[in-house]
Task: structure prediction
Amino acid sequence: MDIVAESDVGRVRRNNEDALAYDAGRGIAVLADGMGGLDAGEVASRLAVDRIMDLLGEGLAARGADPESLITGAVQAANLDVCSQGRENQVDMGTTVVAWLLTAEGQCFIAHVGDSRAYRLRQGALKRLTSDHSMVQQMIDDGILGEAEALTAPNRNVITRALGLDLKVEVDVRSWVHRPGDLYLLCSDGLTDLISEPEINQLLAELASDLAAAAKELIGRANQAGGHDNISVLLISP
Ligand code: CA
Result:
């Protein structure tokens, strides 16, 4: 399995509040985009990523666990960790998360909360696998806003779900059968705010055989387009 993870602070922010991790041997990857004053965002995203990686790793090593329950439970446990860390330090902290898992049987799972995304490139076509938990997505779903308008909507960074806000969190999980040649992208909104999906599609299709070059190019283009937020990408070629 080939996995490349790249994260860049961007051109405006001082801190990088995104966190990423992966374990190619186990077939797991996690990306989180933290929020909160001072360094709270960094703490929240790192805490969530580490906790989810640990729980997925343990669960897969133990075998027999239902992958959907495993990935959901791991995200919920991370939520409790971020909640208690915030309470302990009396700071507001939160984080998005997107977690990816491929079982030995070839079943792929994505769990997510917030507006970090997962995409799949299959036979040259890019498909978004996650639906943002954001005000803008809600407005699109309600027919109030078009997809094109959403790209520039002033409230597009307002999310409606995150880890660390409440002891209970609803986790969206979806699964499908992995096909040979499928390529996956996990990313933070610092990428998708600035680079359109057709552009991501074209770039990934061109550079599918060189993930390191693809990751570098995605981040470079987001920086060229302003780099107003941290930019993180995880590319997975199972
Ligand atoms: Ca962000």
